[in-house]
Specification:
This protein is mainly alpha-helical. Helices cover about 45% and strands about 10% of the residues. Keywords: Aminoacyl-tRNA synthetase, ATP-binding, Cytoplasm, Ligase, Nucleotide-binding, Protein biosynthesis.
Length: about 500
């Protein structure tokens, strides 16, 4: 089914498991589903796949909802929104899965298995070889195990009546080829001989991902399953399940992995070692613009038909198509993301930038007046890649420097600097007013009196004010800081460096 040829309504779903904070790769999957749905006037559905209660994290769902809302990816059906196929939590649909598992047993496509984990492991050890170090539980081995195929009917019924722990397994065909068309990868084939008889229903009565997602995708009339490449090996099991039920499968599209700059899938280790955040929350808290992150992620695996780089969400919807999604993994480039964010930050109007900055300040409990907020915004907006940089790279707006950059001291502080700053402090202290013109003229007068270039005064002043020798225009910066703060910081840098 091509991404624009189907006459059936387009319905896609994003179906995360609430096992932790939303990964940046998960947001890209949600984005591609959103773009595809809106491109074809379809529905974007959120479904919570929470059947693995052992890995459930209570805060994960709230993090997910916040990330989608912050990113502007609103869904048509799902938790909190409702829809014709609710509930949208798999944990609330267990009766449906049990009914379909029984249907597969009755039709001969699945069976009860009473083996313990130790018994399954022992089987794998018995059959292990250099060529096959982890043998499958399937047609080649199932008859030597304890299941409803190897045991007689009376024994099976007695075990069920006694409540013996058991799972339900899919009966994988022997030595068959499973073939399906992938919207990204073309024709994909798998051989069943190496596949396990997949567990469909666990011993606690809850389904595995494989049964639940097939049943739900069918009941929710999902037309396209757009998900990460890591689910590609599971797809033949899903295709066989659709066949067993007699259902038409949706179209499949498996997205390329987001790779670390050092190869391998982008992981939490990269966050720790390379400074690349892997969770959406980290980007929000760091002050990235959601529009920039969405723009960057859209082009991380998909490429437009021209050289355009900056897209609004509406423009992405118009341009997006699955046939321009690549197959190979794509390296995450934080510098490129920062470039995108810089473009969006520079394009913001001053009020929006100031309000985004206020949010950052509020989170750090730094109160500020509107007048000073607007002044800081004006001084920094064209100098930062993200709003959060104001609190990291320009912390001196809110706190006196506690250290001075060694390279800047080396280049900006001379044997004469303390004398020049002391002279400037006297000029500023005696001035009847303190504004930009006074600041400017004071530095020029000191430079002329001491027969030095203006830079010999500016560099140590900037070092005193900010701890470094680069930043916003020095006259505006000193005027903003005010006389008291300027004099205090001049005294501090002299004490520290002399």
């Amino acid at each position: 089914m091509a991404d624009s040829d189907s006459s059936a309504p387009v319905r896609v779903r994003f179906a995360p498991s609430p096992t932790g904070r939303l990964h940046i790769g998960g947001l890209r999957t949600a984005l591609y589903n959103y773009l595809f749905a809106h491109k074809h006037d379809g529905d974007f559905i959120l479904r919570i796949e929470d059947t693995d209660q052992s890995r459930y994290v209570e805060e994960a769902e709230a993090d997910l909802m916040q990330a989608l809302s912050w990113s502007g990816l609103n869904y048509n059906e799902g938790p909190g929104t409702g829809g014709p196929h609710q509930p949208y939590y798999q944990s609330e649909r267990s009766g449906l899965y049990q009914r379909y598992a029984q249907q597969l047993i009755d039709s001969g496509h699945a069976y009860y298995a009473f083996d313990t984990e130790d018994e399954v492991e022992a089987m794998r050890e018995r059959h292990a070889s250099d060529d096959n170090p982890s043998p499958a539980y399937n047609a080649h081995t199932r008859m030597e195990m304890r299941n409803s195929l190897s045991l007689d009917d009376d024994e099976v019924q007695q075990l069920l009546d006694d409540g013996a722990p058991h799972v339900v397994r899919l009966m994988m065909p022997r030595n068959e080829t499973v073939r399906f068309e992938d919207e990204v990868r073309g024709t994909v084939t798998f051989e069943t001989q190496g596949l396990d008889d997949q567990v469909l229903l666990k011993s606690d009565g809850l389904p595995t991902y494989h049964l639940a997602n097939v049943v739900d995708d069918h009941h929710m009339r999902i037309s396209h399953v757009i998900r990460g490449e890591e689910w590609l090996p599971s797809t033949p099991k899903h295709v066989l399940l659709y066949d067993a039920f007699g259902w038409t499968p949706p179209a499949f599209a498996h997205l390329p992995l987001i790779m670390s700059p050092e190869s391998g899938k982008l992981s939490k280790r990269d966050s720790n070692e390379l400074g690349i955040p892997v969770f959406v929350t980290d980007y929000r808290e760091a002050g990235y613009q959601p529009e920039a992150l969405i723009n960057f992620l859209a082009l991380l695996g998909w490429h437009p038909s021209d050289e355009q780089e900056i897209f609004s969400l509406e423009e992405l919807v118009e341009a997006f198509s699955l046939d321009r999604v690549g197959v190979s993994g794509v390296q995450f480039d934080l510098d490129k993301l920062n470039w995108y964010n810089e473009q969006y930050v520079r394009a913001m109007n001053a009020e929006d930038f100031a309000e985004a900055l206020r949010t950052q300040l509020t989170e750090e409990h730094l109160p500020i007046t509107h007048e000073r907020l607007m002044a800081i915004a004006e001084l920094t907006q064209d100098r930062v890649s993200k709003v959060g940089d104001v609190l990291t790279e320009h912390r001196y707006f809110f706190e006196d420097p506690t250290a001075y950059d060694e390279d800047d001291v080396e280049s900006g502080w001379t044997d004469q600097s303390a004398e020049l700053l002391q002279a400037l402090a006297e000029v500023y202290d005696e001035a009847s007013t303190f504004d930009r013109d006074v600041v400017d003229q004071g530095m020029r007068d000191v430079a002329e009196t001491h027969d030095v270039g203006l830079g010999a005064v500016i560099h140590p002043v900037r070092l005193a004010i900010s701890g470094r020798t680069s930043g916003p225009g020095i006259f505006d910066l000193v005027a903003f800081m005010g006389r008291e703060t300027t004099l205090r910081r001049i005294d501090a840098v002299i004490d520290a460096l002399e």
